[in-house]
Amino acid sequence: MDQPSGRSFMQVLCEKYSPENFPYRRGPGMGVHVPATPQGSPMKDRLNLPSVLVLNSCGITCAGDENEIAAFCAHVFELDLSDNKLEDWHEVSKIVSNVPHLEFLNLSSNPLSLSVLERSCAGSFAGVRKLVLNNSKASWETVHTILQELPDLEELFLCLNDYETVSCSPVCCQSLKLLHITDNNLQDWTEIRKLGIMFPSLDTLILANNNLTTIEESEDSLARLFPNLRSINLHKSGLHCWEDIDKLNSFPKLEEVKLLGIPLLQSYTTEERRKLLIARLPSITKLNGSIVADGEREDSERFFIRYYMEYPEEEVPFRYHELVTKYGKLEPLAVVDLRPQSSAKVEVHFQDKVEEMSIRLDQTVAELKKHLKTVVQLSTSNMLLFYLDQEAPFGPEEMKYSSRALHSYGIRDGDKIYVEPRMK
Question: Has the keyword S-adenosyl-L-methionine been applied to this entry (predicted)?
Fold first, then answer.
C-alpha cells in the first residue's frame, strides 16, 4: 500500500522538537524527557520531547515510521493533533497504537469523516480518557465504534459537528462523565434524552449554542435519564418558559446551572434574572459560574415572594407557595428615594437681616457667593460664609474652599448660612 502524500507525524515531531527549536531546559514546569530505550532512530539523541505533545496546524497527513513513534513517544500522555489533514483513521491508529500511555487525544478539525473507523483501528484508542472530535464531522457510527472500544473514556468533545439528531449506541458507556456537545443544531428534547440513555453516569452536560426550545419530559423520567448529572450548561439555548427551568429540579444531583442568553430571560433585569433563577432552583450551589451563598439564596427567595405577591392567583408559580410556607407572607419593601437632595431651603443671616432662600446644592461655594452678592451687597472677594447645621453641636463651619460643592456639607432644609464681611 502506498504511503499517503504530505507531512508525516514523525517528520513534524523531529522538526518541532529538535534542539534548535525546542532546547532542553531545567526548572519548575520546564522539564522534558528523552526516552532511553535502545531501539529507534539515531535522531532520538537529538530530540527533547515533553510528555505533552502539541502538533496542531502542522499539515500532518500520515503517521510515518511506527518504530520511531514507539521509540520517541513511550512517555507521552497528551497529544494535540488538531487542525491537521488527517483523513484516514488507519493513520491515526498507527500513531496512537505506538503511544502506550496516551490519555488525552485532540483530533479536532481533521477531515476524518472521509473514512470509516473500523473497530480494529478504534481498539488502539483503548487507554484514552479524554477525546476531542470537535469540527471533525464525525458520524454517530464513528462515535459508537469509539465508545465500544474505549472502556475508560471519561470526557468526550463533539462540538461543531452539525448534529441535528442523536443516534443511540447499541451499548451504554458507563465511564463517561463529561459530554461537551455545543454549537450543533439539537433542537428537540427527544434527541437530548438519548444522551441520558447512552451515558447514564454523566456528571457534566454542556449543551450551549444548541437551539433547544423546551424540555419535554416528566419529572420521574428526567430523574431516571440523568441520575448523576451535577452540572448542565444551556447557554444560548431556545428555552422560553419558566416551566422548563422548573424541570431542572428533577435532576436529583444537579448543583450547577448555566443559563445565559436564553429568550426567557431577555425581558428581565440582570438582578431579576439571577434572583428569580436562584429562587426557582433550590438545590443549585453555582449559577452562571458564580457561587450561590446562603445569604444570597435567602435574599433571592424573599425577593421571589415579593415579586409575585401582586400577581393573580392563576399566574403565581407553585414555588411561590413553597416559599411562603418557609418565610410567611412578607410585607412589601418600603420605597426609599436614595437620590441625593438637589436643593435646600436655608436661612441666610447678614448683620440683622434674615432671608429664607432655596439654594441649589450642586453649585460650589464660589457660585453661591455670586448668588448672594445682591442680597448682602458685598463683593465675592469681601465675603466670608459660615454654615450652621441645625443639629451640629460644634457651631458654624467656615466655607473656606471656593470649589467645594454645597452638597458635600450635608446641607438640609432649615440649616443656616451666615455672611460676614472680610476684615481688612
Answer: no
